[in-house]
C-alpha cells in the first residue's frame, strides 16, 4: 500500500507512520508531507530516513504545488491512501491567533481534496476530532449528532471535516472522517495537558490547572488511535464518519493527581490558574459504530499512562530540546501562562 501521511512529523502522525512500518514492513510506502511548524519535528522519524519506502517532503498542505508533489508518492508512481493529520492543533493557541487554523485546517483540507480528484485513491481519511461536537454535560455524542464547535480550533476542524464530507458526496471521493478523543502517548508536544504536566512535574515546576480542574476529557492512547485508523482504512465505508474514543473519561484534576503519583511529586505543585475562555466542560463520544464493526481499543488506561510517563522520563533530551532550547516555545509559554496568574 502506498500512503501519503500529512503531518507525519507531529505527535499522532509520527506514531501512525511508525505503526504502519511496524505492521506492514516494506509492504508500506509512505510519503510524509509536513510543513514543520513549531509542532513538527522531522527527527521523530529519523530511523526511517534514507529507506527506499519512506520519503519526507517539507511542504504545506495549503499549497497546491507541494500537495501535487506529495501525491506522486515515494517513487513517482502515486499513492493509494491519504491520511490527513496535518493541522494546527492547540486550542489555547487558537485563542491567541486563529488565522493559521483556517489556513491549514480548512483551506489545506480543500487543497488535498482537490488534488485527490485527479487521482485514483482508494481511501482519503480526514482526521477530525470529537471537539467538533462541542461540549456535553450528560450522555455521549453519536456520529449523527449536530456539530457545535465552540472555539476557533474546533470550528476550523469542523470546516475541514465537512469539506471532506462534501467532496465525498459531490465528487464521489472515497472519503471517511474520523473523530477521535484526546490522545496521549510518546512524542506528544509538551504544550498539551499530559506531556506539559509530566515534564513540569519532573522539573518541580507548577502544574497550571485551569479553572476548577473538573473538565472532563476522554483519553485515547495514541497506539489505539493508530490501530483504529488502520482498521478503518480497510473496513470504513465511503462518506461515513467514525467516532474513536478511549472509553477513559477523567476529570483534569484526576489526571493531574495520577501524574504526581507516577512522578512521585507533591500535590503542592498544583497551581490553580485562570480558566480557558469558552472552556468546553466535557467531551464524550459513543464509539459503538466502530465497535460494531469489530474494533476494540487494546490498552488499559493506567498502564498506558504509566508507560507514557516513563517515556518522558527516558526521553528527556527530546522534550528539553523543545522546552529549554526553542525560543518559540519559551515565548508561547510565557505569553500563555503569565496572563493566567
Ligand atoms: P501536532 O500538533 O502534534 O502535529 C501537527 C503536525 O502537522 C506537525 O508536524 C505540523 O508541522 C504539521 N502541519 C501543521 N500545519 C501544516 C501544513 N499546513 N502543512 C503540512 N503540515 C502541517 O498534532 P497531533 O496532536 O498529532 O494531531 C494530529 C491530527 O489529529 C490533527 O488533525 C488533530 O486535529 C487531530 N486530533 C488530535 C487529537 C489530540 O488529542 N492530539 C485528538 C483528535 C484529533
Ligand atoms: P489540552 O491537552 O489542551 O486538550 P484539549 O483542550 O484539546 O482537550 O487540554 C486538555 C484539558 O486540560 C482541557 O480541559 C484544558 C486542560 N488544561 C489545563 O488545565 N492546563 C493546561 O496547562 C493545559 C494545556 C490544559
Radius of gyration: 19 Å
Q: For the residues shown, what is the average pLDDT?
A: 98
Give the class from helix and strand content and strand pairing: alpha/beta
What's the level 1 CATH class of the domain at 2-184 and 218-244? Alpha Beta
Let me know the number of strands. Answer: 12
Looking at the overall shape, the CATH architecture of the domain at 2-184 and 218-244 is 3-Layer(aba) Sandwich
Helix percentage range: 40-55%
Order of helices and strands: EHEEHEHHEHEEHEEHEEHEHHHH
Percent of residues in beta strands: 15-25%
Number of helices: 12
From the N-terminal CA to the C-terminal CA, the straight-line distance is 51 Å
Shape: globular
Kindly report the name of the CATH homologous superfamily of the domain at 2-184 and 218-244. Answer: NAD(P)-binding Rossmann-like Domain
Sheet with most strands: strand arrangement: 3-2-1-4-5-6-10
Small molecules (ligands, ions, cofactors) in the structure: nicotinamide-adenine-dinucleotide, thymidine-5'-diphosphate
CATH topology of the domain at 2-184 and 218-244: Rossmann fold
Largest sheet: 7 strands, parallel
Point out poorly predicted stretches.
none
Amino acid at each position: 500500500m502506498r500512503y501519503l501521511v500529512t503531518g507525519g512529523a507531529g505527535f499522532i502522525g509520527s506514531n501512525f507512520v511508525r505503526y504502519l512500518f511496524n505492521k506492514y514492513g516494506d509492504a508500506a510506502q509512505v510519503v510524509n508531507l509536513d510543513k514543520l511548524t513549531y509542532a513538527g519535528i522531522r527527527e521523530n522519524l529519523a530511523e526511517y530516513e534514507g529507506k527506499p519506502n519512506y520519503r519526507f517532503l517539507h511542504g504545506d498542505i495549503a499549497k497546491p504545488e507541494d500537495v501535487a508533489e506529495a501525491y506522486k508518492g515515494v517513487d513517482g508512481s502515486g499513492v493509494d491512501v491519504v491520511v490527513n493529520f496535518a493541522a494546527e492543533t492547540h486550542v489555547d493557541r487558537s485563542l491567541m491567533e486563529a488565522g493559521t487554523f483556517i489556513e491549514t485546517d480548512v483551506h489545506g483540507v480543500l487543497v488535498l481534496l482537490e488534488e485527490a480528484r485527479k487521482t485514483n485513491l482508494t481511501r482519503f481519511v480526514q482526521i477530525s476530532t470529537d471537539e467538533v461536537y462541542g461540549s456535553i454535560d450528560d450522555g455521549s455524542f453519536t456520529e449523527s449528532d449536530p456539530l457545535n464547535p465552540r472555539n476557533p480550533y474546533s470550528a476550523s476542524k469542523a470546516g475541514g471535516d465537512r469539506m471532506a464530507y462534501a467532496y465525498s458526496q459531490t465528487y464521489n471521493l472515497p472519503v471517511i472522517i474520523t473523530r477521535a478523543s484526546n490522545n496521549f502517548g510518546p512524542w506528544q508536544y509538551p504544550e498539551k495537558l499530559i506531556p506539559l504536566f509530566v515534564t513540569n512535574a519532573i522539573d518541580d515546576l507548577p502544574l497550571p490547572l485551569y479553572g476548577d480542574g473538573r473538565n472532563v476529557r476522554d483519553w485515547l492512547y495514541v497506539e489505539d488511535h493508530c490501530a483504529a485508523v488502520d482498521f478503518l482504512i480497510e473496513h470504513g465505508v465511503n462518506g461515513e464518519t467514525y467516532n474513536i474514543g478511549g472509553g477513559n473519561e477523567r476529570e483534569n484534576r484526576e489526571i493531574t493527581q495520577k501524574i504526581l503519583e507516577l512522578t512521585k511529586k507533591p500535590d503542592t505543585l498544583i497551581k490553580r490558574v485562570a480558566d480557558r475562555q469558552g472552556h468546553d466542560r466535557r467531551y464524550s463520544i459513543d464509539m459503538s459504530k466502530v465497535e460494531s464493526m469489530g474494533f476494540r481499543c487494546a490498552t488499559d488506561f493506567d498502564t498506558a499512562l504509566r508507560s507514557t510517563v516513563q517515556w518522558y522520563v527516558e526521553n528527556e533530551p527530546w522534550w528539553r530540546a523543545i522546552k529549554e532550547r526553542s525560543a518559540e516555545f519559551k515565548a508561547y509559554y510565557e505569553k500563555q501562562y503569565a496572563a493566567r496568574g
